[in-house]
Fold these 3 entries.
Entry 1:
Amino acid sequence: MNSSSQLLQLASWMSGEYSNREQSLDQPVWFVNLVWWQRPIPFNVLGSIAIFAEQANALILDRPYRQRILQFVENDGKIQVKYWGFKDPVAWTGAGRDRDRLNQININDIEPLAGCLLDISFVNGRYKAEMPKDAKCCFQYLNESRQVVLGFEVSADEFWSGDRGVEPETGTAIWGAIMDFYKFKKINDFSPEITHQ
């Protein structure tokens, strides 16, 4: 499979609404029950396939957070995922469940997140995304600089998130996938919404 076909397959597999309900019931101490939305945005926003992502505690679905855009790019035959943040994240709260609002996103609403880039490999029937060595992903949140280690694995019906916030000085994980991946199952498929031009 060439990299263009792989990029499309990766984006298709990732596009959906996900829940980690089973994991949260099995290990409630370590894993909150979350719903995670990853939904395609119009191709013309970035001139490439990209998806809007946000998540919410399953008990308070009307308060999603961590709004961002994941852009799929090819570099020298390799696939990478580049992260963008919203200048006003609150304005896009809940857009993961609202296709019409996602159609209104334009390039002026978002900004690239420096250092927030993942390299994609295909291993044992799954796509694996890892930050390049020495990469540092930082963003502003409530007027504070936060550092995040990003990563995921995805198959046709599962999405595993390894995202975790770290203490910049020590590298100690302080939130997110501290013990293991958050393991989500796809409960709604948004791949038919992907556009190529």
Entry 2:
Amino acid sequence: LAIENFISVKATEGPKLVAQLEEHVKEYDVDIMKGQRAAGITRGDYIEVPLESGATLKAKSVIMATGARWRNMNVPGEQEYKGKGVAYCPHCDGPLFKGKPVAV
């Protein structure tokens, strides 16, 4: 099955798209973490995302990329902050977070 109607791409396949995105991201000063799975999410002074590996990511904002359809996670603040920090489309809403530390 092809991925269609993606910005500037008529049609592609998932593995090819991901490889191209990764090559693009490598042009920037960012860390790429592969094979990590979130074990939860908590909110305090920072949003904390513990990983199954035992590491913990901390950020002021988090982009939840939940798949092909927008899915509500039903976490506190999700509805109130929709469009004000809670985003569902990383390639559409990502530019809103330019220059800021984020996790996807």
Entry 3:
Amino acid sequence: MKLLPRYSEEPDVNLTPMIDVVFLLLLFFMISTSFIRETSLKVDLPQATGEPLAEQVDPIDIVIQANGDVLINNSPLIVNNRDNFQNALRAAVGDIADPHIIISADSAAEYQQIVTAMDVAQQLGYSRLTLATRQTQNENK
């Protein structure tokens, strides 16, 4: 009886597990990367334990300092009243439909100024507001 010779298959490398590991590493580094937004003004931000947001494209910065000074995109308000605030915010936004507005208030700033900033933005029809905080440092690290 004549038997056919057995041909052994060529070994091949399965790349699927390696690709899975690379994608998991990529996902891990994307999630664990922190985007820190630095500003040149000294504002002592309140602390929060939430996760930081990814930086948005061209946000409008409203900075409320401890002494009551208000700056919109680093331009100070001459007279700090509601009408001037509305006009300055409208001028800073320009023709952007719904801008991302970041309110950075000093932890010693009056709460009324923060509420006024949020109220003026809402009256102008801007709904994407963010209150900037700094992340608390864990002492157990």
